[in-house]
Amino acid sequence: MLPWNTFFRTIAIGLVALLAQTLGHVCDGGLSRSAAQDSGIEKRTYETRRVDGAPPVLDGRLDDPAWDSVPWAGEFLEHDPARGEAAAQPTAFKILYDDDALYVAFRAYDSDPSQISRLTTRRDWFPGDWVEINIDSVFDQRTAYSFTASVSGVRGDEFISQDGNHWDGDWDPIWSFETAIDGEGWTAEIRIPLSQLRFADREEHVWGIQATRRVFREEERSTWQPVPQDTQGWVSRFGELHGIRGIRPRRQIELLPYAVATAERYKQEVGNPFASGRDEKLTLGLDGKVGVTSDLTLNFTVNPDFGQVEADPSEVNLSAFETFFSERRPFFIEGANIFEYRVANSAAGGSFTQDRLFYSRRIGGRPSYSASIAGANVDLPTNTSILASAKLSGKTRSGFSIGILEGVTAKEEAEIDLDGARSKQTVEPAANFLVGRVRKDLNRGQTVLGAMFTAVNRGIDDVELEFLHDAAYSGGLDMLHNTLDRNYTLEGKLAFSRVQGSEQSILRDQRRSARYYQRPDADHVELDSTRTSLSGHAGSLSLAKFGGGVTRFQVGAAWRSPGFELNDVGFLRRADEINQFGWFGLQFNKPFSVFRRLSFNANEWVNHDFGGVNTSNTANINTNATFKNNWRASAGLTRDFEHTSNTALRGGPSSKWPGSWNANASINSDDRRAIQLRLGGSLTSGDDDSETYRDVWLDFGWRPSSQIRVSLNPSYSVSQPKRQYVTTTERAGGGTDYVFAALDQETAALTFRLDYALQPDLTIQYYGQPFVAAGKYDDFQRVRNPRASRFEDRFEPLGQKEIPFDPDFNFREFNSNLVVRWEYQPGSLLYLVWNQSREGFVENGQFSVGDDLEALFDVYPRNIFLIKVSRWFSL
Questions:
Q1: I need a surface site. Which of 16, 345, 356, 669 has the fewest CB within 10 A?
Q2: What residues pair up with 425 in beta bridges, in sequence order?
Q3: Which CATH number describes the domain made up of 32-245?
Q4: What is the number of alpha carbons within 13 Å of residue 748 lying toward its C-beta?
């Protein structure tokens, strides 16, 4: 039986509780109009004035006559840790404006100015003491612009959305400020060009504002507009800025042309014309931003280069599923929140929460086909070229958030040399990617309705590429409703997908790890080699309480039908799955005893396939504590119960697997100190001695000066499953063997980082990671009865002659990146980059950190040297 009855019973209980509280709230005086009024906290206002005469000169001194025309606003209250109490150090601010800019002055009083922290880092790292202004210029109570001024001169800026649930630090506007320290504390003067804000075209404006200050040595944050304890929402609780009149939105046009010179050095291969040992190239490109209207902005890139982007961390993936890696390319990161559409959001977590309609790394990824001919040399592109990409985004005054992204990728060809004869083979067809997203705010953002659509179209002209889809489409509707002072949330999503192509491409979909239609005991699906399309549906429904008092909860369910497929431009691990989840927590946000904050939570997950098979049952408990000395600790205990797996035999019948226990713990020292330590580890023990896993990691951080930070992160893990999948073979006399073996795998890695900020606009960053892993297989077994009652009865030994191959491995990899970043003029950048990589593989399975590292650094490196210069123009 499917678990819908359990889920709906849980939802019903939650809805009854929600209705009861809603009715009680209404009986106590009715539902209020604003978040601030709901909480009983007065909404503050500030009356600004137009600059009369010369605008303030940015020197941080606050001695310009213009500042005398407006009053100070103060009475900041502590936001963290003891919310609502008077701030230990008073703060005040003023605001002025003219036709070009908004001007903000801060006076940050300090009883001991010698203790003001002037840590220096690169932009958006928010070091030391700082002040911040948040501006909701659209006045939708959902989105805002954040400008942070550190006393050391470091800028921080973020675009806030989802009422404070998402802060986009990759938004980099052009603005300026100066600071000064005196006997009373420190001061800041900020100039924010109006061209960097979006606002309506009207005669008089009301904007939402919030001012925040951080006192580093106390780790205290205070705010001008008080925000109630244990509540949801940020932007909706801002105070108001009044008095702005007669300004008009300006059409913003920014161009950023760039040039990149690249030189590669690597080991020369005798007889391989494509491996001469050196390559050089010069590329040109253009980034741009155009204000289409006062509400919508068009960002575009032509022939983009991402050579300064750090490499992904190394891994050995022995599972049947793809690893999810976060996006690192600036064009796709900025404003990415508007394109966010996860099939299910769960506070309890779970791998199913990674499934999403748009995964930007699909654009410009590795070519899908690897051309190889015996005896031939092949020059294979490492990535698909992005010819151009553009995104239109913004939020209209009527409450519509709009995002449209289109990317065009090139047809990629591998060049083949066979005894001097040259030919070309297409390894990736030309493709067009389209993503559209719209959301509508209702009732001041308490209700949000949304829709999304994606499309991928490929021009497939080569028979070798017919395993790819000609076209892929997906879309979805979503709804979010907040009530009772935004503390309760009801969320629902409904999605669809359709892929079409050759019979080969759809057969490949049916046989992939996301669904395994070929399983002999899968009665609810059928493998069909004649299909030329595949369609599916998915969705989720959840009810949550994320604020108000100490208690928190979320209950919900998600599903993805067997034919659901997203991996052309989205990310999907498993279709054919129904997930029920629950999360229950206690959060103590007010300091007490030795604690600054303390929380507990318990989670549970129950998964089924669409045939009713219970594929997993899991529960865990966790605790997180922040102490008054700013140390932090966490611990958790997880129980995986015995379950049936549809994927362990990689397309074979479902199989029964033992449960396991996992315990984890970590402790972090005070991040404000010159030396910081983080230590953690976990231990997993399987029932029936089926597996053992343990890992430990250390993060050592050292700040020898206000400008330098060094971190060292060694980690070590041992994985010892008693039955690890090796391969599937066909018997000579008929039948299939699913081969497993005991695996002893050890992995060690060391991540080193150096950050040196010579000044806020000139920084040096180094990242390096040697990674070694070895796996030794033993005790080879074939599956005999995959669902036998006893674990040992499910397998039988293989004879020595029946072992298909030796899967032992030693994998060694080193990646490093040195980046010098200089913002030589506002918005204009110079990058100097040195990237080095080494990789080696042998098949002995013997783990030795010393020997593996020695062998790794004996590998001839590939060095890439890059100079990238860009120049910002505002028209």
A1: 16
A2: 414
A3: 2.60.40.1190
A4: 10
Give pLDDT tens digits for 206-229.
Answer: 999 999 999 999 999 999 999 988
| Residue of 651, 732, 749 whose CA lies nearest to 696 | 749
- Comparing CA positions, the residue from 724, 836, 698, 845 lying closest to residue 781 is 724
The chain-wide mean pLDDT, for the chain, equals 92
49-50/91-97 β-pairing:
parallel
Closest CA to 67 of 94, 91, 101: 94
**Nearest CA-CA partner of 665 in 639, 622, 635:** 635
Which run of H or of E encompasses 849?
helix 849-856
Q: Return d(Cα 871, Cα 142) in angstroms, integer.
A: 33
Ranges under pLDDT 70 in the chain:
1-40
Beta-sheet strand order (sheet of 377-379): 377-379, 412-418, 421-428
Among the listed residues 519, 494, 433, 425, the one whose alpha carbon sits nearest the alpha carbon of residue 469: 433
**Phi-psi group of 421: left, alpha or beta (phi > 0 → left; psi -120 to 50 → alpha; rest → beta):** beta
Token readout for 772 is 């070694």
What pairing do the DSSP bridges indicate for beta strands 660-668 and 708-721? unpaired
> Alpha-carbon distance 448 to 450, whole Å?
7
Domain boundaries, the chain: 32-245
State residue 419's pLDDT score: 87
Q: Find how far residue 659's CA is from the centre of its chain.
A: 30
What is the distance between the alpha carbons of residues 364 and 631, in angstroms, rounded to a whole number? 42
Q: What own/partner pairs with CB < 8 Å and gap ≥ 24 does 599-602 have?
A: 599/623, 599/624, 599/625, 601/552
Contact status, residue 88 vs residue 108, Cβ threshold 8 Å? no
User: Among candidates 680, 756, 688, which has minimal Cα distance to 715?
Assistant: 680
C-alpha distances in Å from residue 644, one per residue of 5, 353, 537, 693 = 21, 21, 24, 21
Amino acid identity at 587: Q
**What are the Cα distances from residue 609, in Å, to 10, 514, 576, 612?**
20, 12, 5, 5
* Separation between Cα atoms, residue 493 and residue 503, nearest integer Å: 31
Strand partners, 95: 104
Q: Token pair of 330, please?
A: 């600036």
Q: Which amino acid is at 172?
A: D
pLDDT of residue 39: 56
Q: How far apart are the first and last CA of the chain?
A: 64
d(CA 142, CA 165): 9
568, 589 contact by CB (below 8 A): no
DSSP letters spanning 727-774: EEEE-TTS-EEEEEEEEEEEEEEEEEEEEEEEETTEEEEEEEEEEEEE
User: At residue 443, what is the residue type?
Assistant: N
CA nearest neighbour of 562 among 535, 592, 602, 593: 535
